[in-house]
Amino acid sequence: MAKAATTRKKRPAKKASKPSADNMAAKQDDPVIPAKDAPKKAEDVATSDQSMPSVKNGDAAVQRRQVISDLFQRGLAAHQAGQIDDAIRLYSTALRQNPNQPDVWNNLGVALRRSKKFEAALIAYRRAADLRPGNAGLWSNMGNCLREMMRFDEALVAHKKALELDDTVKSHTFNTGLVYRDMNRFEEALDYFERALAIDPDYVDANWDKSLAHLALGNYAEGWAGYETRRKLADNPIRPLETAPEWDGKADLRGKRILLRAEQGFGDMIQFARFVPLVAQKAAHVILECRKELIPIMKTVSGVGTVVEKGRALPEFDVHVPLLSLPHVMGIGSKELQKISTDSYISAPQGKRARLAPPPGTVLKVGLIWAGKLNPRDRSCPLETMLPILSAKGAAFYSFQIDDRRADIDKLGLHAFVTDLGDHIHDFGDSAALMQAMDLVITIDSSPAHLAGALGVPVWMLQLYTTDWRWMVHRADSPWYPTLRIYRQDKPGDWSSAIQKLGSDFSTLLQARMNAQ
């Protein structure tokens, strides 16, 4: 048997959450290239300023030129070092000295976009385009910015301008595909990803997004095979584990101890835990690795023999496989997924019980989650948009928020309408116990949506216009969770139609409960 490595040293905590692998390619920051070269990546940063006119030695303008060049080089050094605020300040100072510098305008746009100052970034890109309209990389950068602003039609115009100028650069084609992906036009996105791969078959980002497009379309064989590309993503490495072979789905597991390795976020782990019982039917013992907060609920998954916290020393095992590789190695298609997803597969830990005291006359207990992490996208739905629902007589609402957005309840003066459960939730075991006491959970696309679905609790999910691959397109249901109902934005950034439809369905459900009483 293989012996696991000892506990690794903990890395310093980051201020921002690391994005899940599902959208990494769309959010990447790209390496620097010389301004005179053709752009090589999704966003191009010039490393030399060639815009200043040459002057004779001894002329006073030489000194001014040197000052501007020095500002540019200092800004570039800060940019490359990740000191984005300093880079913005230095680029801006250089441009105030001489605004006729397209490379500096471009770099300023890149830095501003990195800081999510999209309007300012767009202005910088347009200034650069006025000065150097034939720079294909600049138009691609502008398209990236417009895509993040969800101005998709304009983004397509910019990207197709880049392709018109130079269609030999793989990132220009790939970036165009990302716009179609964000518009949920996955067939067209696939076409552009394939074009990018024709230029470079080993293009990791294109292979990754190609796999997600296939999964969004329900093409599981192609999708799961391509999903293995996540192992090559710079921001989502799966650490090497050479002490035992990796299971390929075919090797006999009788008498074997198999380690299912943790990766990605909470929701991903909950979603893919449904495949654990299938492995348990083949192996003598299943060891499931996961983050600390998930341990209480992962112990309730059928077939799990041992649960170990990620980063801790592992028990002995014979073979291993990343949890999210199971549908690929086990050949899970739509029929298999439908069969596996029929029943709930997670429960509240024994000994954990919810003690609620709903107001008299309550016929419907509703859990609420309206905000989540900001990366890779902010999936939040402002709590104030739900005010018409919260005013419904006969319903009691309970907040499952555990972050700073708990303060929204106080900010809006909603303590009489929403009970804050945040102080009672310390891990997913606590959340599971409280959710099982709910008649309905209303949530954004976040880990609580997966938890409610895995528990078999009715869950209504508010979904951004740009869908995540697992929720597919043009569907109100999900092959992953039979109790899930999806309410999608009809327009980017606009929750009004989704909230209106959800509110109508909620009134119907509440009235039915009241009639039953």
Task: Report on the architecture of this protein.
The chain is of the alpha/beta class and 517 residues long. Helices cover 42% and strands 10% of the residues. It contains 21 helices and twelve strands. It has helices spanning 24-27, 60-80, 84-97, 102-114, 118-131, 136-148, 152-165, 170-182, 186-199, 204-216, 220-227, 266-272, 276-280, 295-298, 326-329, 334-340, 387-390, 407-411, 428-435, 447-455, 496-516; strands at residues 32-33, 45-46, 257-261, 285-290, 306-309, 319-322, 364-369, 395-399, 418-420, 440-444, 459-463, 484-488. The strands form three sheets. It has a six-stranded parallel sheet, sandwiched between helices. Strand 8, helix 18 and strand 9 form a beta-alpha-beta unit. Helix 6 (136-148) packs parallel to helix 8 and helix 7 runs antiparallel to helix 8 (170-182). The radius of gyration is 26 Å and the shape is globular. The N and C termini lie far apart (59 Å). Mean pLDDT is 89; it is low at 3-41.
Give descriptors for this structure.
12 strands, 4-stranded parallel beta sheet, 42% helix, 517 residues, single chain, 10% strand, disordered N terminus, globular, 21 helices, alpha/beta
